[in-house]
Amino acid sequence: MGNPVLSLVMNTILDGGQALVFTNSRSNTVKLAQQLAQYICNYGVKVIEPRELSKVSGAILESSQSRLLGEELAKIVRCGVSFHHAGLDMDVRSIIEDSFRNRLIRVVVATTTLAAGVNLPARRVIIHDYRRYEPGFGMEELPVMEYKQMSGSW
After folding, report:
1. Which of 142, 85, 109 is nearest to 19 (CA)?
2. Which candidate among 45, 46, 49, 93 keeps its CA 20 to 30 Å from the CA of 14?
3. How many Cα atoms within 13 Å fall on the side-chain side of residue 128?
């Protein structure tokens, strides 16, 4: 497909699984989730019943304090994709996590904050960026412990 992340995600969901994709910034979670959702919706990949995803989308719109983020998230959730980062309200994050556990949302693109203390079962974990910005140091590689947390091997 020309994009390794897209290829891995599509392989996973077409096989009936779910994927977690970790990236290094909030803005990258939104951009990558939008790209994945666009591909899934535009190419007619049926991820889950649209009615169920509409309910999740509506719950996100009702719970989100940020209209802009809430609307964008609600839009892509209809395709079975979500982003997850510390900038989202706790209620919205809970909706995303519960919907993923219940197999409604099939792909979550997240920052490493998701790996800290949240247990989400996924068939495939993709680490899109192995480096992140650290103030005062610039781009740094992820610590091994964080990689283990993200991959579920800790």
Report:
1. 109
2. 93
3. 24
Nearest CA among 12, 29, 10 for reference residue 21: 29
d(CA 100, CA 35): 19
Q: Which two tokens mark 148?
A: 């283990």
* Beta bridge mates, 81: 107
- Token look-up 């079975």 returns 80
Determine the residue type at 101: R
Amino acid at 106: R
Q: What is the bridge-based pairing of β-strands 81-84 and 19-22?
A: unpaired
Task: Report the alpha-carbon distance of residue 72 to residue 134 in Å, rounded.
Answer: 27
Q: Quote the pTM value.
A: 0.88
**154 residues of the chain, pLDDT tens digit each:** 678 999 999 999 989 999 999 998 899 999 999 999 999 888 766 656 778 888 999 999 999 888 888 999 999 999 999 999 989 999 999 999 999 999 999 999 998 877 666 678 888 999 888 887 788 988 888 777 777 777 776 5
Structure tokens at 16: 């009936």
